[in-house]
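Postdoc handover notes: sequence design on the structure in folder B. Input tokens:
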């Protein structure tokens, strides 16, 4: 197993989507959503301790407008891992 942030599914989505990620060792994880301007919208995972494994988080954007959003994972532990991906909300 390796550090991974998968593409959300479905994408484009309305109003909710699932984001999968995996961590190969016990780590503190943050998963945040940003708008096109880089403003933080929501923290789906807020620096939570996660055991090694695969995880799925659901993001409900019913209160947001259509557009492009970004989701970013930051993992701190023995190694640091950061990755950002793009998703599209269509209403």
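Designed sequence:
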């Amino acid at each position: 197993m390796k550090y991974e942030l998968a593409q959300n599914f479905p994408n484009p989505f309305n109003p909710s989507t699932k984001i999968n990620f995996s961590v190969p060792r016990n780590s503190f994880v943050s998963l945040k959503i940003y708008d096109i301007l880089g403003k933080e919208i929501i923290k789906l995972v807020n620096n939570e301790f996660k055991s090694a494994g695969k995880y799925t988080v659901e993001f409900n954007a019913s209160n947001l407008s259509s557009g492009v959003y970004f989701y970013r994972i930051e993992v701190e532990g023995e190694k640091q891992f950061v990755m950002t991906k793009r998703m599209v909300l269509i209403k």
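Context for whoever picks this up: Strands lie at 4-5, 16-23, 27-34, 40-50, 53-60, 67-76, 81-89. Don't rerun without checking with the PI first.
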